[in-house]
Amino acid sequence: ARGVARRPGERRHRHGRSPLMPEHTFLLEEGLWSVEGRLLLPGQPGAPFAGETRVSHEPWVWRLDGYLQVQPAGMRLENHYEIRPFMGHEPTMDWTSQNPVLGRLRGHFALVEDALISVFEAEGRELRGTEMLLRQDAGAYLSRGALLEGGTLVSSWVAILRRAM
After folding, report:
1. 81 or 11: whose pLDDT is higher?
2. Distance (Å, rounded) from C-alpha 37 to C-alpha 158?
């Protein structure tokens, strides 16, 4: 990235990252990921969920399409993201998503060492959120996130993503 000091002889490579930074596989590579976790609503026990997410790349847009099946209610949550890939050495990517429950979302992914951090908001609503995907290894990420409305916690989640292919 611009203005970042480097060690003598240190090279930048793909997506502006230092060779000392771990290679990310989620989002930055196409693939299918399984997801398991718990949806946490204030004052209620956590509800387990499972699902999958597929990442695909086209030259000017990346897509992330996925679903979560929440138990025991059987509620299915879907997301369809369009992501603007990294440009030059910028460590951020803009994204939009159409969510059947939350409406149109706009956000940004930031690459920070071994984490992919997303911040987002719903258009025309006081909904804001964040999610951190922490790389465990090339085939697994831990996810932690929260959704707030006007400063009040609406929901949070904990999950693990595992590369399926």
Report:
1. 81
2. 5
